[in-house]
Amino acid sequence: MAGFNKVVSSYEQAMAGLENDMTVIAGGFGLCGIPEGLIGQIKKMGVSGLTVVSNNCGVDGFGLGILLEDKQIKKMVASYVGENALFEKQLLNGELEVELTPQGTLAEKMRAGGAGIPAFFTATGYGTPVGEGKEVREFNGRPYIMEESITGDFAIVKAWKADRYGNCIYRHTAQNFNPMAATAGKITVVEVEEIVEPGEIPPSQIHTPGIYVDRVIKGTFEKRIERKVTRSA
Amino acid sequence: MAGFNKVVSSYEQAMAGLENDMTVIAGGFGLCGIPEGLIGQIKKMGVSGLTVVSNNCGVDGFGLGILLEDKQIKKMVASYVGENALFEKQLLNGELEVELTPQGTLAEKMRAGGAGIPAFFTATGYGTPVGEGKEVREFNGRPYIMEESITGDFAIVKAWKADRYGNCIYRHTAQNFNPMAATAGKITVVEVEEIVEPGEIPPSQIHTPGIYVDRVIKGTFEKRIERKVTRSA
Amino acid sequence: MALSREQIAMRVAQEFKDGSYVNLGIGIPTLAANYVSDDISVMLQSENGLLGMGRYPDEDEVDADMINAGKETVTASIGASIFSSAESFAMIRGGHVDFTVLGAFEVDQQGNIASWMIPGKLVKGMGGAMDLVAGAKNIIVTMTHADKHGNSKLLEQCKLPLTGVNCITHIITDLALLEIKDSAFYLRERAPGVTVDEIREKTAGKLVVEGDIPEMRF
Amino acid sequence: MALSREQIAMRVAQEFKDGSYVNLGIGIPTLAANYVSDDISVMLQSENGLLGMGRYPDEDEVDADMINAGKETVTASIGASIFSSAESFAMIRGGHVDFTVLGAFEVDQQGNIASWMIPGKLVKGMGGAMDLVAGAKNIIVTMTHADKHGNSKLLEQCKLPLTGVNCITHIITDLALLEIKDSAFYLRERAPGVTVDEIREKTAGKLVVEGDIPEMRF
Predict the structure, then answer these.
(1) Chain B partners of D59 at a C-beta cutoff of 8 Å?
(2) Where are the alpha helices (H) located in D16-163, listed in sequence order?
(3) Which molecular function term from Gene Ontology is one that the record holds (chains A, B) (predicted)?
(4) Which residues, 6 or more positions from C182, have their beta carbon under 8 angstroms from its beta carbon?
(5) A vs B: CB pairs below 8 A
(6) Is the ipTM value over 0.90, yes or no?
(7) How much of chain B, in percent, has pLDDT values that exceed 90?
(8) A85 and chain D: CB distance < 8 Å anywhere?
(9) Which of A46, A229, C3, C6 is the most buried (most CB within 10 A)?
(10) Nearest residue of B to residue C78 by CA position?
């Protein structure tokens, strides 16, 4: 099954084809479940003018936050960006554009993008600044707004394990936005902790079927914790 | 966790509250992954005027087909109904109404119903009899039709295993429409082969989280095979 | 006397029913988990994809892949399920979560809520709040009755940009428990020692007081 | 000489590229799986929720929970994934399946296809066909070039109710391989021994014949 071997051996190969002004959809919630090495490669490549779609924009010096250092991000689509001083600075300076999107709407926009659904209706955001300028329609007497789906030139995803066909599973809450991101990239790159043999993940337990995945790379992860809280604390 | 114990011990309890003229969403694809005992209970209850939403309507004498025998179904929403002589007869007699819905649209209508999305756009069915009378809108130069979601008074679901909190997993291709059906019922009843202890199914492998499930019953299954084909054949 | 944060959380917890699925926002709402009666069970939903959120981990249980929506390390309780953000918000948007508890800047007598944006101040984002207020069956707002300048946060009409419309049914403040219906705040309970007059004075929106208003019991 | 069903399937299989995800309809399309070159691999998608459909089972492998979209018992190949119908059609609708092969009653020069409904006859349903033709990247129709009365099935405009519009790019009949573009059928290959004249005679829609038309090779 040579044609289905999606494993690449270098980050250069993993992100080959990424160009200025492209849209990148990234999995992750805060610093949990983020494709650390792929983000590092984007920084190394120095591409700029990026539109990045991700729930958050990392923190200063880690995660997507490192792409702010050289002003590689033109526009951020996210639900919460409050963890990042550099982000605030660039936003206030007008160097960075942000499109705040409710978290559930963001997840659904990615899913819809991957599933060939160009738009859907949701009550979320109706009557708020999020609903401004969007079409309103009533169903069963309740008003909803129309939201359009999102697709990206690239999707960068962090999974726990994948086989060479691209079948992925995620670990614990590091799943978050990754499965939807995986469906929504023209080119989907998955960075994993471990590459396993096909068949090792039982077919019904695969979270992301390989059909969505173009490239798989084994990474190493720092897995920084944003807020370590323990029972004794 | 008494409040989360969803296990009931009789089919009467499992389907309590089902009344004439209600809408029932049923999982299953052909005869694969169907809640045999719950269907039997509906027959036994004798309720009529039902709208049944399911990919198929069983076969003569098995699956949802048995609900035709006493004319309990008023309307069937399905993608394919070609396996059933009694269905054809009632349809031609005008005793039964059918709303043919493309399979993927049907799956998405159930998912959307459970997910609080009242409508979505799809290219499926545009320019065909399915698209007639539906709103058409262009996105990126391609025409799409608007489809509305489906919810039911009851959803009847067949899972492989569930714990008493209602967390379910499905076996092989008996998954099919069951996960979406499970989300779309005001009352969702799951018939399973085995009830396991909470925690036995690893959290990330649960297909249907218990929040969608109201009642769980252990059933016995005939699992009739529609088209047995073997390698030697 | 005005309730402490802990007392507000205690009163919130009394609202939960056995078998409730509950999403708790950051701050006072999160504290409510500590005061759930031993007689009942609730299951906590964390919108990053966890149903059945457990206690904080011991030091040796800390796992970067196991966090809650506040990005804190956490554990899963027995019988928990873990899923994607799309599935998590399908649950929320689809009305499967029984109670959502969250803080607010303002609530008005239409049940509108403003909780995420103060014009002129830096906006950090709404996170999942707009989805939660659009989707949950019962939404309880916890906040102080008035701001530190004494201005009421229970208004005839919210002044700040909204998080959601016609969605709030209950408010538990440091002074009172109120229900919103028919475009008014219905006073249901007073904090121990707080008078109806004080509540009336600090409620800018339309307040309805029917009969004797009991004190909260803890 | 007109191709047999097996030969049509063989010619279909030549279209697949190494690493293709393919959905095969019932009938001749399903046969194509038997003729995939040993040099390449394709993965079969079955729309009831199986990616990586394998061979039919041995007698002792038969499992009622393991079927394909034709409701036949089947196996999963190594590396297969199994998922819900919603996920399956997310793949299909979202354009992730590389090839869909299906039969038809009629195809027209606009790429419209009619394959599910004959007015006056009992309608069994479209199953997943409308989703497949709306979603796949490359759609190959297999059918006889003309019906048993000799009437062409390649039309200027479909007469029967449609399954999808502007979606068919390739047709492989018992007589020819044709590509649809610019509102015409472009003749690309002839079945061995079949003349361009015979194909022209049996093609009601606009046929474009550019240069020498090679015979199919098997």
Answers:
(1) 230, 232
(2) 28-31, 85-93, 129-135
(3) transferase activity
(4) none
(5) 56
(6) yes
(7) 96
(8) no
(9) C3
(10) B199
- From the number of C-beta atoms within 10 Å of its C-beta (0-12, 13-18, 19+), residue C209 rates as middle
Q: Could you read off the pLDDT of C123-170 as tens digits, one per residue?
A: 899 999 999 999 988 999 999 999 999 999 999 999 999 999 999 999
The verdict on B9 touching A (C-beta cutoff 8 Å) is no
Which run of H or E residues covers position C14? helix C5-15
pLDDT of residue D138: 93
Which of the four pLDDT bands, split at 50, 70 and 90, describes residue C120? confident
Task: Give the model's pLDDT for residue B177.
Answer: 98
| Structural tokens at position A18 | 């990424």
**Interface A-D: count of C-beta contacts within 8 A:** 76
- CB D110 within 8 Å of CB D183: yes
CA distance B61 to D95: 38
Which three-class secondary structure state does DSSP give residue A142?
strand
pLDDT tier at D123, thresholds 50, 70, 90: confident
Single out the residue of D5, D55, D17 nearest to residue D138, CA to CA. D17
Asked if A171 and B204 come within 8 Å (Cβ–Cβ), the reply is: yes
Digit-coded pLDDT (tens) for A138-192: 999 999 999 999 999 999 999 999 999 999 999 999 999 999 999 999 999 999 9
The answer to whether residues A90 and A188 touch, using CB atoms and an 8 Å cutoff, is no
Stretch A122-143: mean pLDDT, rounded?
A: 98
Q: What angle do CA B49, B55, B56 make, to 5 degrees?
A: 70
Encode burial over A165-175: b for 16+ CB neighbours within 10 A, e otherwise.
bbbbbbbbbbb
CB-CB neighbors (< 8 A) of A113 in chain D: 94
How many residues belong to chain D? 218
DSSP E strands: which ranges in chain C?
Answer: 20-24, 42-46, 50-53, 76-82, 99-103, 106-108, 113-114, 138-143, 154-155, 170-173, 176-181, 184-190, 207-208
Measured between CB atoms, does A115 come within 8 Å of chain B?
yes
| Per-residue pLDDT, C1 | 84
Burial class of residue B5, CB neighbours in 10 A (0-12, 13-18, 19+): middle
What residues of C are annotated to the active site? 47
Pair of tokens at residue A132: 């401004």
Closest chain D C-alpha to A93 CA, distance in angstroms: 38
C near B: at least 3 beta-carbon pairs less than 8 Å apart = yes
The single-letter code of the amino acid at D194 is V
* B118 near A CB under 8 A: yes
**Separation CA B88–CA C94 (nearest Å):** 36
Output the pLDDT for position B106. Answer: 98
Helix, strand and coil content of chain B, in percent to the nearest 5, comes to: 25, 30, 45
Q: B37-51, B131-145, D24-38, D96-110: lowest mean pLDDT where?
A: D24-38
Distance CA B68, CA B168 (A): 29
* Residue A126: predicted pLDDT: 98
Report the pLDDT value the prediction gives residue D120, as an integer from 0 to 100: 87
Are the Cβ atoms of A4 and D41 closer than 8 angstroms?
yes
Chain B contact for C130 (CB, 8 A cutoff): no
Which residues on chain A are in Cβ contact (under 8 Å) with D95?
Answer: 116
Q: Tell me if B2 and C18 make a contact (CB, 8 A cut-off).
A: yes
Interatomic CA distance for residues D31 and B61, integer angstroms: 31
Residue in chain C nearest B202 by alpha carbon:
C81
Q: Check if C108 contacts A (Cβ < 8 Å).
A: no
Q: Do C81 and B199 touch (CB under 8 A)?
A: no
